[in-house]
Amino acid sequence: MARTSKKKQEIKRKPVKIYYVGIYARLSVDSGDRKNESIETQVEIVKAFIAQHDDMVVYGVYTDLGKTGTSFEREGFERMMRDVRARKIDCIIVKDLSRFGRNHIETGNYIEKIFPFMGVRFIAVTDNFDSMDISGQNETMSVNLKNLVNEMYARDIAVKVKASKRAKWEQGSYTGGIPPYGYRAEWIDGKKYLFIEETTSDIVRKIYGLFLSGSNMNEIVAWLYENKVARPTEYHKTGQVFCADGQELFQWSRATVRMILSNPVYVGNLVQGCTCGKDYKTRRRHDVDASDWSVKEHTHEAIVSEELFLEAAQKFEKSAVYCNRDGFSKAVPTEEDLFTDVIYCGECGSKMRRVAVIKKFSSRDMVRTYSYKCPKSGRIDSLNCPGRSITMGALTDIVKETIRQEFTLSGMRPKDLVEMNEREMETLKEKWNGQLAMIERKLEGITKAGSEQYLKYRSGEIDEKGFRMAKEENDKKADSLRAESRDITEKLREIDSETARKNHFLRTLMKGSKKGELTAEIVRTLFERIEVYPGHRVKTVFAFKRSEFLSGGVAE
User: Fold this and answer.
1) What CA–CA distance (Å, rounded) separates 392 from 166?
2) Sheet of 366-373, strands arranged across
3) What does DSSP assign to residue 114?
């Protein structure tokens, strides 16, 4: 049998794998346009890299400006990871490893474990790192070494920043941002010091006077409103201590009044470094042990005397005999907040908050009762809302009855619906996968045709112009098919994501119906929104429409 020429053999190629890329860029400190340009430079470097690869399509750009690399708790990064989990992204590209992270343990965990498990390709352009091209241990060791160097740099910077701050604290310098109400801040010889601001300091003295004469928080707030005293927020924005005629006046919050009555800055002392401590790895704010606080006495002029300040502190101590600093009794355990993040006031649309009341009986037993209240209810300014509160017990009964009626009226059986949902998903995916296979066959045909045309050109059957025209036509058809392939791939990802969400919803229904109990997870899964109106009228908005499950399909 005659041997067939290799040039005439059918050229086959694997289906084109298209990567949907998430570009990630990060910068530690935001200090003006130059920094913004640096973020843009990172993105441009990555885009230039992508332009050289036909198998890459930019899905989105994710940036974090003013965010440290020692923690992965960054808004842009978390948004990117949500898209990764939703299978919208299967490739992440950064300018270099330090832009991704400076914690070598966490960075290595993502690159070596999390991303491979999720099927995500990771590329650091200027470090010449591609997770698809690692050939041996040396490359892995090189990446780990770079990550370790990045972390050592971050740790060194963190130590220097803390040492610099502590030196300023020892010198009585104020290192905070906006100065406390009643003071102004001035820079002297490179350090920031506090000085009394005459008008606002008079307001601070009046607040102490009212509190020590027997006024409660609500009465102090009412006095401030009646005398048109602008809130500290408005004062720092406008510089106006009192609200001018024609301007809208807002009431002070009780928390702001309490802060003024309990802040030792008003007796001339600076207590710093007590709540802003950050671990260089996690970068999470946490309480610092009192022994590590920086306490400097008489660093600036006092607005109130120590006697008045201690008298106010004693009043607070008496009112908190049964409560800790968060306002909850130490002796009575707290219950789960079932409706957090989903309960709203039907009148004004504000998110309602849970409040607790502790009752002590003659038997010395204590019990905590909960209710949900509109934060604008009872205000004395124009933001006052007529909405009323509702007890957690009453709301729980109403929501349980709503769920029961939804089951009864729809005749839904969550277990059957889970199975039906998965069957429908597989049927729909088969349809789209069939179209993908057809597109791949067409691409193979175009490649084969291109090879045959090239052979004809080399043999002289067609001239160069004819060959180029045919090639351009083939390229247009191939580009159109690849675009169609990307659209179908995106549809398949959406189907998987929607199916997972629906199954989670249905399994949560089964869990709740079997136990007959409500949990915060069940409520968040079942309901998109719960609105409370006067007279214990409640409107519930389910996270899914009943028709979505009764139809059994996923929208194409």
Assistant:
1) 47
2) 353-360, 366-373, 390-391
3) I
Q: Is the pLDDT of residue 430 over 90?
A: no
Read off the DSSP letter of residue 249. Answer: P
Residue-wise pLDDT tens digits, 179-199: 889 888 888 877 778 888 888
* Torsion from C-alpha of 232, 238, 241, 245, nearest 10 degrees: -120
Residue 296 near residue 269 (C-beta atoms within 8 A): yes
Is the whole model's pTM more than 0.90, yes or no?
no
DSSP state of 230: P
Residue bearing the bigger pLDDT, 74 or 294: 74
- Within 13 Å of residue 24, how many CA atoms lie on the same side as its CB? 28
Residue count (the chain): 556
Residue type, 169: W
Which amino acid does the sequence have at 211? Answer: F
Close Cβ partners of 528 (under 8 Å, ≥ 6 residues apart): 342, 541, 542, 543
- How far, CA to CA in Å, does 427 sit from each of 88, 99, 382, 440? 21, 42, 56, 20
Beta bridge partners of 328: none
Residues 140 and 129 sit within 8 Å (Cβ to Cβ)? no
Q: What is the pLDDT of residue 1?
A: 46
Q: Supply the pLDDT for residue 363.
A: 61
Give 519-545 as a DSSP string: -HHHHHHHEEEEEEETTTEEEEEESS-
pLDDT of the residue at 440 = 87
The tens digit of pLDDT for each residue in 386-397 reads: 877 888 888 888
Q: What is the dihedral of CA 209, 213, 214, 218, to 10 degrees?
A: -30
The residue with tokens 């809208």 is: 248
Using alpha carbons, list the distances in angstroms from residue 537 to 343, 438, 540. Answer: 13, 56, 10
Q: Give the pair of three-digit tokens for residue 246.
A: 């024609």
**Alpha-carbon gap, residue 26 to 401, rounded angstroms:** 49
Q: In whole numbers, what is the pLDDT of the chain averaged over residues?
A: 75
Could you say which DSSP state residue 17 is in?
Answer: -
CB neighbours of 137 closer than 8 A, spacing ≥ 6? none
Strand partners, 94: 124
Neighbours of 229 (CB within 10 A): 21
231 — phi, psi (to 5°)?
-60, 155
Question: In this structure, what DSSP letter does residue 222 have?
Answer: H
Q: Kindly report, residue by residue over 8-65, the tens digit of the pLDDT.
A: 444 445 557 889 999 999 887 544 434 445 788 889 889 989 998 888 999 999 998 8
Could you give the CA distance from residue 100 to residue 516 in angstroms, rounded to a whole number? Answer: 45
The most distant pair of C-alpha atoms in the chain lies apart, rounded to whole Å, by: 113
**Strand ranges for 284-392 from DSSP E:** 285-286, 294-296, 343-345, 353-360, 366-373, 390-391
CA nearest to 298, candidates 193, 228, 387, 203: 193
